[in-house]
Amino acid sequence: MSAQGGEPRVLFEVDGPVATITVAREKALNALDAATLEELAAAAARLAADPALRGAILTGAGEKAFVAGADLRELQAVRAPEQGRATARRGQAALAALEGCPKPIVACVHGFALGGGLELALACHFRYATTKARLGLPEVKLGLLPGYGGTQRLPRLIGRGPAIELILSGEPVDAAEALRLGLVNRVFEDKAAMLAGARETLLAIAQRGPRAVALALEAVARGADRPLPDALAVEADLFGVLCASADAAEGVAAFLEKRPASFQGN
Question: Is the pTM of this model over 0.90?
Answer without folding.
Answer: yes
